[in-house]
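Researcher: Quick sanity check before group meeting.
Model: Go ahead. Protein one:
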Amino acid sequence: MEQYKKDFINFMVDCSVLKFGDFTLKSGRKSPFFMNAGLYQTGSELIRLGEFYARAIKENYGLDFDILFGPAYKGIPLAVSTVMAISRLYGRDIRYCCNRKEVKDHGDKGILLGSKLHDGDRIVIIEDVTTSGASMAETVPILLDQADVDIMGLMVSLNRQEVGLGGKVSALDEIREKYGFSTAAIVTMSEVVECLSHPSEGKPLIDSKMKKALDDYYKEYGVKH
């Protein structure tokens, strides 16, 4: 596993974004872990978060694209911090774009914030985590309604590696099959378990009890290979 992935996993834990315990997800599933990107709250945290996303986007998609699109609301700070990081780290100026939940009918009218979309724009979508893939059902029509754009792919921070709405493959795989663009994550849940079960120093955050809870969860909801 690359060092930046290990650093990102520990960063999520340090920021209390990734927690282990007993959680009920929006889907109704009882999960032994929970990830909430809304808990990145300080300037220094957002700077580091943008750098992790920038590294992963460059590694998976390169930097030859025009727009980084962040769906409202959590995608907005992700898109802004990441285009700033791409500019700072790689000297490439990518435009950012986000959507509003309600169309604005005065001033800067429309549904978009940031850059307008133009025919031929190449877009990477950025999100925190995708469990069901339902957000893409809102996001993709918004993009295609604005211009004849090329959606290159989706980047999330964590691939939970559990079945999506169809109950057979992961949410990221469902998105790829349905919409025809690539999907990627900074880290997968398998990488999280590997890193936190065998830390280079200190006690493991995932002990035998938590490992059993995770194994039981993935027996029920995990992707079957």
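Researcher: Fine. The other one?
Model: Protein two, sequence then structure:
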Amino acid sequence: MKQETGLDSSIGIGPNRMIAKLASDQAKPRGLMEIRAGWEQGFLAGLPLRALPGVGPKTAERWASIGLTEVRQIQEMELQNLQRLLGDHAQEAQASGPRSRIVSPERRPAAAVGELGDDPLRDATDKGRLDALLALFVSRVAGTIADEE
């Protein structure tokens, strides 16, 4: 990809989309990370809470104000204690993470670049053209995902 487009890429492999995304984030800017089924809890334990999907800056700041900054801390807490601190968000925060669909070879993947037209990346070096292509790709992939749900 670097040779063809000049863009760096990272790859995350995991048993569900959330884990694969987090693995990809950890592999940036040009790496590969695989998290095998059964390794999720240990992998997540090493992450800051702000790395989890759904934990935005305000939530991370609020949790940090009560001393919670790492996934490991939440994993180790009794659910009742966590509920006292976080209320309704305690179970979701327990760092098994949001439920995510299993990645399966039987499922048709989102549209590949080749399905989006005749070599849409050819001669795509202009920033405006790249922005337009990115918007096109994102909308098509989002449409495919929405159709599957």
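Researcher: One line on it for the slide.
Model: Strands lie at 11-13, 32-34.
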